[in-house]
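Show me a record, fold above all:
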Amino acid sequence: MTEAGLVQAFLRSKGRVLSQEVIVLLVTLALCVIFTLTLPGFATLGNLLTMSNSVAILGMLSLGMGVVVIGRGLDLSQITAMAVSAAIVCQMIGAGYPVPLALLAGLAVALLIGVANGLIIAFVEIPALFTTLASGLLVYGLARIAVLDGFISYIPKGNDAFLYLGQGRLFGIPFPVIVFAVLAVLVHLMLSRTSIGRFIYAHGDNADTARLSGIPVRPLTVFEYTTSAVIGFLAGLVMAAMNASMNTQVINSTLIFDVIMVVVLGGISLVGGRGSVLSVVVGAALIGTLLNGMIIMNLDSNLQSIIKGLVLLGAILLDNFLHPRNEETARQGD
């Protein structure tokens, strides 16, 4: 047995004690202790509330991405779906349209993006990386030309019920955290308690075997990407309510890479068929804590990008080590 095989056997022999989720959770706790001791203001109530809100947004996006990655896919258009659909909602509310109508319009846009991605990937069989990258650019360009009035869409005053989604508290807990928790429970139940969830794991583990066993792989692919886009829309609503606006320039930020870091670091393998909602929760906690610490340290944006790039590369290498690709995996087109 090779040295890597011996290490993997050792980790498996330790069971859940040395699972990736537990390791990530321990690293997060260690970071919190270090930042508390070294960064003035990190452990303040205001900063903890700010961090919890950012973790909630990151976590919601990662739940949608997690569903796609478990099915061995990748959705680079998720931030576009989030920003464009939420910006349309804000703009329609600002123009005087009823909030329910604006929400339906935003949801329709997110559904259209998700369904289009799924159909192209499943039936035209263009790789997910290229499909979602192209669809994200296309949708944002069309929205800027034909729909949106500017980069930022504002929510006018008087929409307190909508703003409560991002600024309210329930029993002292920020409402975005509650939304994330509820969404996490729903996704967990879908993945672990329904036939669709079992099909998604089977699809990611071996698409050919899943197809031969009678699983409708192509409609399932459409469902996975639609779920990612709709969850992105919900995260966009919370973000818009939190800031009373939606800045579509977030599409050009590194947020999509933060989401991928959360998913892979938490334990959802890029090979597919592995991971859970717990993976997303611990991954979001780690990346949220790291990003918050870098902001407090006022690190240069270029240095932040370098650190995040190293973390992402490390996460991919860790995933490759824990879940090595064999000949069968390679034949399925990673």
